[in-house]
Amino acid sequence: MNKATGYGKKSFADQIFLLGELFLLLASSFIASYLLHQFVTPIPFDVRLINAILFAAVVMLCALSVGLYDQQLRESHGGILKRVLITVLFSAFLLEVVLFNLFSSIAINVWYMLLACGIAIFFLSSFRAVFHYHDITSISRRRVLILGAGERASIIEKRMRRTVDRRNFEIVGFVRIEGDKEGALKNETILDLNVQEELFQFAMENAIDQMVIACDERRNMLPVEHLFKCKTRGIDVVEILDFIEQETGQIAVNLIYPSWVIYSNGFDSKKWLKTNLDYRLNFLLALFVLALTWPIMLITAILIYLEDGRRTGASVFYKQVRVGIDGKPFHIIKFRSMGPDAEAGGAKWASKDDDRVTRVGRVIRKYRIDELPQLFNVFRGEMGFVGPRPERPEFVCELEKDIPYYAQRHNVKPGLTGWAQLKYPYGSTTEDALEKLKFDLYYIKHRSLLLDLVILVRTVEIVLFGKGR
């Protein structure tokens, strides 16, 4: 099996899943329009076809926005059903209120929407239940051999403990290499294998698709000839850093060494299209969001004023110095969610159940309404919609001392939302900052217009379900 086949095998189950959902959504639309055609009013086939395509496309986009295509989504069947319901209701709103009003010639009637949505909810919920119950993803799992059983290899055990973390691969075992720290692995299979003599034969006999170099000491310890033969026979050989990046969407900061950064692909800030359109696209998007949300912003300002602004004379807005691109400070603008004297004793980390937060503040923080005034930071070019969240200078000084490569997150413009906000829950400690940095570095390495679009769409999930900040 060559490398391309190995990666194709990884995504085969996902392709089946996406094609299955696409087929069911098209079927839902056709069944609904057929019933209307037979019992209510004749509908031309071309109108039925256009509606089916639009219905499927909008539902799948909304499913992405609420996290239904997140490979590491951990939800019960009830949680999946709730997300499916939200997806279909959101889709119905977009189709009925937006698209069908703009293009009235393709609209059928409200009964079509009710029927199509009802059928889709049944089909999608049933399909997902069957798909996950029978664990169809097992047909596409790569067989992975880890070369190393020490401290570096233990990162895999710690990072990928859950079944959902290993949905794309099956670890055949960990092979101890001379120089590995003893006792680092707790609950993994350690193979008794003489790698200098038996590695290639073992790989062939056990249909290994991928080998991960994860030993503590590499110099003169790896069986180079065997690795060469494995590579030429189509077995993928990767560094542990690349493996973790590929499977978790983060960069393991504690494993980085300078030569990996220098020689790896990514970290390209000179992409012509993104560089030249960045401010224009952010400005237009901020203008669009402002046009949609100004009533919410007005109501929020009034509520903050009535709660304690009228009594204390404090502003409804809160300005705070943050660190921006290239380490330059700027003033971030937010709705005030804490009392006027919240930081009388100095700068403090905000926490999830912070007692300094007001009643209005709890609501607007949960649904990220407090972030809306940052649209004006976008207009001024200090922030973008997508990027690492900007941190306070007091904390940045602390974090740069404690966390290697922390300053690299300032190589791009900060954002209202980001990859770390999608992937990591609320956090307010140095350890949380380290975890979020791993995702921020992944974003900086891979950033593109497409990735920004995915993050923007999936930010809906953060707002609806109150995930990370």
How would you portray this structure in words?
Pfam families: Bac_transf. Its main location: membrane. Keywords: Membrane, Transferase, Transmembrane, Transmembrane helix. With 469 residues, this protein is an alpha/beta fold. The chain folds into three domains: 3-136, no CATH class; 141-248, Rossmann fold; 272-340 and 351-465, no CATH class. 54% of the residues lie in helices and 9% in strands. It has 16 helices and nine strands. It has helices spanning 3-39, 45-65, 77-102, 110-133, 151-159, 195-205, 224-232, 240-248, 258-263, 272-312, 359-366, 375-379, 393-402, 419-423, 430-446, 449-465; strands spanning 142-147, 169-175, 190-191, 210-213, 236-239, 317-323, 329-335, 384-386, 415-417. It has a five-stranded parallel β-sheet with strand order 3-2-1-4-5. It has a two-stranded antiparallel ribbon with strand order 6-7. Strands 8-9 form a two-stranded parallel ribbon. α2 crosses α16, α6 packs parallel to α7 and α10 (272-312) runs antiparallel to α11 (359-366). The longest helix has 41 residues, at 272-312. The radius of gyration is 26 Å and the shape is flat. The two termini are 43 Å apart. Residues 1-10 have low confidence and may be disordered.
